[in-house]
Amino acid sequence: EAGVAQSPRYKIIEKRQSVAFWCNPISGHATLYWYQQILGQGPKLLIQFQNNGVVDDSQLPKDRFSAERLKGVDSTLKIQPAKLEDSAVYLCASSFSGGDTDTQYFGPGTRLTVL
Amino acid sequence: DQQVKQNSPSLSVQEGRISILNCDYTNSMFDYFLWYKKYPAEGPTFLISISSIKDKNEDGRFTVFLNKSAKHLSLHIVPSQPGDSAVYFCAASAPYGGSQGNLIFGKGTKLSVKP
Questions:
Q1: Cβ contacts (< 8 Å) between B49 and chain A: which residues?
Q2: Among candidates A58, A99, A109 on the partner chain, residue whose Cβ is nearest the Cβ of B43
Q3: Are residues B55 and B113 in contact, defined by beta-carbon separation less than 8 angstroms?
Q4: Do residue A102 and residue B89 have CB atoms under 8 angstroms apart?
Q5: Which of A114, A100, A112, A104 lies closest to A25, judged by CA?
Q6: pLDDT tens across A24-72, in order?
Q7: Which of A47, A61, B65, B101 has fewest C-beta within 10 Å?
Q8: In whole angstroms, what is the distance from residue B83 CA to residue B47 CA?
């Protein structure tokens, strides 16, 4: 079974530029998550999708971050404009149904460096 | 305010001995706890979980203990192997709000198992 795919793996941009990350979850998984992991910290949830609807985006900085999952499968996370403090690893995860005991499977992440 | 705390940033253990990783939480609403393992340049991988109705769960060399009254859980690895060297994240899930499955992670503990 293929795991969660993410691209690109690494991205370096200058502040005020825009960037987009892509995620393809495990086939059949209804729930998709985007996490931000700053160096030395644990992952922090940014947004959770159930199929193509947003379940929780309370921690997403909506003035600069946006995400979509239009067809309920792939998802993109965008930052525009980027700030220095956005340097982090952006992790995508998926789970079968999104229940609180449902295992989340993580992709390898995209490491973003903002200069 | 950190709801899940891993107070030891690192732990070094000799191969064959027991590794004990600790985690404390503050929110009594948490009812499901997980441990994830993370190797460099990879996403976190699910290791083991425990429901709040249990106080112990075993899976091979890995055992998780939960002490609800102390709001404390621990992961025991016996015997420890060099391949266990990784960062271990404790995470908690709460069934409240609109985001079931929302995981709150600790900062992680880096385990080094020396041959």
A1: 101, 103
A2: A109
A3: no
A4: no
A5: A104
A6: 999 999 999 999 999 999 999 999 999 989 988 999 999 999 999 988 8
A7: A61
A8: 14
